[in-house]
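Quick review question:
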């Protein structure tokens, strides 16, 4: 579970001081943060402040009963599970509470194990919901890109970048944009185009890494009908589409040498032929190129043509990695969160001070893109409330984090594998917590011992160390 206990806030609302005190002691001893309310009004206030992850609510309280609190927060209960405490087992009130969206109920007198067990079950389920939601968010975000094309920053390094953009945008010179993955190279390219006299002409992007040489050649230069099997019609290439506008060659460092030679020729002469054609086409395009590869090293290895490098590299803009401009992190993070809040109608979604401190301290190997992903996930975990450090988890696998996150393909298998993965981790955690006492772990998980044994086999779990 990604929600670490120490930041999970549990509201204990009961007018009976002894019960409240006992529950608070029990939960604090387990590592939860506890907030107490002695009547329904206080409980409602605490809930509306948005910092509570789970609530234990007595049904009979002065000022405002538990049911009234439930009624008031009905729509938000998916975000904050409520466990109702009732003195009358199986009574109408408990049924009513469940109908109003309570997660579960406990009858007085209760034993403390039962309380802990129910609390953990609610939080586990919550974290599953949150993880699925995070995946949906991440996917949703990718679907309607670009979300925002404003380059943010006020560190000297970024101000320098803005100045250079301002200085060279209006020229027709090629610009080479360098920087680690996720540092904003594509944003710089669009800013250059948007601030140039060509801004109302086409801005065409080509990802040079995504296509094989043959496909890239026809993508860039187009082809004549019959040029190769499958070329059933003439195709206008990107160079022609970008005529009078800007052509952005992304991941140019991944282009192979053959293709580099062809590109160089166009850059030198301003002319090219469509694949399979003999007519020469003249082109007027402004070239922008970007790569996260180390071009000097590629040149030294003879994997990148030095003459092409000279052509592309009339002006270079190098984007500093995010960790070299930490003072921009809060600014960017706040903008990202504000956008998520607006998009998902979570008016209270915001970053806590501690969350910002955590963000500023991270290495961000995946730069701004990674920051965006971590925040999308945190937003889901925070369930539309204040984002706490516990909601923030670094993206694992650094190698993967540095490149484009894998696109989700359609289909339920995806969701199944996400859930299975989460299930495996939750079970492993319960086992570790119970020191591999299976009875105890099964209890923690709210499943039978038999089910637990099946899962251990299914996921091939083993005690470590
Ligand atoms: N300075 C910034 N301010 C605001 N958002 C930014 C900034 N830099 C990058 N971003 C955002 O981060 C994400 C990644 O940026 P972009 O796609 O431009 O990176 P890149 O350098 O092209 O990465 P890659 O090498 O992986 O293609 C985008 O969603 C972009 O909007
Ligand atoms: Mg890019």
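Suggested answer, residue by residue:
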């Amino acid at each position: 579970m990604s929600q670490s206990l120490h930041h999970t806030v549990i509201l204990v609302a009961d007018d009976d001081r002894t019960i409240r005190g006992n529950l608070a002691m029990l939960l604090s001893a387990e590592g939860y943060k506890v907030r107490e309310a002695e009547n329904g009004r206080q409980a409602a206030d605490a809930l509306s402040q948005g910092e509570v992850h789970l609530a234990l609510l007595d049904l009979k309280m002065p000022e405002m009963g538990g049911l009234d609190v439930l009624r008031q927060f009905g729509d938000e209960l998916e975000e904050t599970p409520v466990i109702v405490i009732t003195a009358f087992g199986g009574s109408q009130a408990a049924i009513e509470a469940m109908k109003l969206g309570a997660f579960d109920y406990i009858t007085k007198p209760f034993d403390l194990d039962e309380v802990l067990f129910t609390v953990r079950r609610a939080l586990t389920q919550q974290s599953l919901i949150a993880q699925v939601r995070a995946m949906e968010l991440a996917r949703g975000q990718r679907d309607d890109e670009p979300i925002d094309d404003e380059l943010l920053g006020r560190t000297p390094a970024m101000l320098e970048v803005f100045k250079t953009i301002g200085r060279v945008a209006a020229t027709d010179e090629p610009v080479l944009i360098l920087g680690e993955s996720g540092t904003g190279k594509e944003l710089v390219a669009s800013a250059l185009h948007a601030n140039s006299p060509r801004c109302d002409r086409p801005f065409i992007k080509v990802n040079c890494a995504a296509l094989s040489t043959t496909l890239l050649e026809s993508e860039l230069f187009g082809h004549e009908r019959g040029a190769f099997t499958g070329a059933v019609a003439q195709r206008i290439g990107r160079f022609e589409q970008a005529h009078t506008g800007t052509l952005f060659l992304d991941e140019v460092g991944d282009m192979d040498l053959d293709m580099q030679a062809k590109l160089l020729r166009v850059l030198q002469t301003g002319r090219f032929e469509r694949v399979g054609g003999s007519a020469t086409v003249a082109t007027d395009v402004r070239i922008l190129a970007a790569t996260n590869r180390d071009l000097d090293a590629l040149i030294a290895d003879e994997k990148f043509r030095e003459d092409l490098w000279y052509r592309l590299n009339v002006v270079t803009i190098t984007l500093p990695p995010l960790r070299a401009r930490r003072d921009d992190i809060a600014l960017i993070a706040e903008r990202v969160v504000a956008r998520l809040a607006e998009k998902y109608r979570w008016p209270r979604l915001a970053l806590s001070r501690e969350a910002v401190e955590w963000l500023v301290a991270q290495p961000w190997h995946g730069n701004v893109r990674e920051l965006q992903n971590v925040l999308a996930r945190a937003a889901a975990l925070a369930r539309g409330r204040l984002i706490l450090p516990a909601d923030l988890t670094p993206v694992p696998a650094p190698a993967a984090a540095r490149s484009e996150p894998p696109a989700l393909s359609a289909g339920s298998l995806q969701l199944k594998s996400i859930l299975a993965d989460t299930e495996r981790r939750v079970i492993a955690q319960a086992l570790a917590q119970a020191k591999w006492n299976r009875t105890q772990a099964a209890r923690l998980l709210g499943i039978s011992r038999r089910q637990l044994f099946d899962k251990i086999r299914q996921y091939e779990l083993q005690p470590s160390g």
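Why it works: The chain has four domains: 5-135, 156-321, 325-402, 412-458. Residues 185-186, 250 surround magnesium ion (ligand 2) (CB under 6 Å).
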